[in-house]
Amino acid sequence: MSSQPEMVMRPEFEAGELTAAGAGDVARRLTLFERIADLDAVRKLTILVLVVVAWELYTHFGKVKALIFPKFSDTAVALFQAISAEQLLIMIWNSITVLVTGYVIGLVIATLLTTAAAATRFGSDVLSTLTAMLNPLPAIALLPLAMIWFGLGNEAIVFTLLHSVIWPVALNAHIGFMSVSETQRMVGRNYGLRGLFYVGKVLIPAAFPSILMGMKIGWAFAWRTLIAAELVFGGSVMDTEGTASGGLGWFIFANRMDMQIPHVFAGLFTVILVGVLVENLVFNKIENRTVRRWGMQVQ
């Protein structure tokens, strides 16, 4: 016969005041320096300033020939001269106008392809096959054909840009749609959503991080393709007065032919600045108001 263990009664204990316990800083007001350093724009601007300083120091003390790698100060002077006297702002506007035209048309075509791929199996097969065929093909390789088909004008450049935009956007959006969980799909079907309503109310919000990434990649590819195309025949585009009116790529090419190397670097620096501004003022704003606000991405 097994003996039952003896029950032990613990004495009651009542905790006293805990205000004296030191728990450290639960919430501390940030200093002005900490608040400024926490700003995303300040951190990125600091990196840019460090790159510029390293550039200036390397060219000043590294005994580099100005014909090969000019100083940043000389590049800044050339940039100011190009803006004030050489219509650089008009060239930037010409490039942005062509880019936005090709980018918007490419987004529309990519949306149609991705919607068809999400709605039907045949559409998915079409998108997969076309992406496998055309995505590895460099967009600039189509420029000679575009010049034959559309002539020396903006139409040829826009056609080339379409190839840069459609496939990255469509591929990333399709991957995002395929990664949507079955639970979310079942919820949409239980609500009776079909076709375009199913895509717009279920698939697009759930796959928006991938869609936004595809839009970023498409923008970067299109921007690079545009500059490369303008390097070839950007000055051949005629404005309303019948004079040659090129973009940033033509500005770089023309100054390279004249051996104005600081102006060449000024054009390259402008290409970088435009890319940084679009990334931070457009795509980051969209990202902050969508995927980060929805909790789909870590801050």
Structure notes:
The longest helix is centred in the last third of the chain and has 39 residues, at 195-233. The termini are far apart. The protein has 11 helices and no strands. The protein has 299 residues and is mainly alpha-helical. The protein has a domain at 84-289: MetI-like (MetI-like fold). The model has no long low-confidence stretch (mean pLDDT 79).
Essential attributes:
11 helices; MetI-like fold; mainly alpha; single chain; about 300 residues
Shape: flat
- Uncertain spans, ≥5 residues at pLDDT below 50? none
Strand content: under 5%
- The helix/strand series, from N terminus to C terminus, equals HHHHHHHHHHH
Give the secondary structure arrangement, pairings included.
Layout: H1 32-37, H2 40-61, H3 72-85, H4 88-119, H5 121-134, H6 143-150, H7 154-178, H8 182-190, H9 195-233, H10 248-257, H11 261-289
Helix pairs in contact: 3-11, 4-5, 4-7, 4-9, 4-10, 5-7, 6-7, 7-9, 8-9, 9-10, 9-11, 10-11
Short description:
Helices cover 70% and strands 0% of the residues. By secondary structure, it is mostly helical.
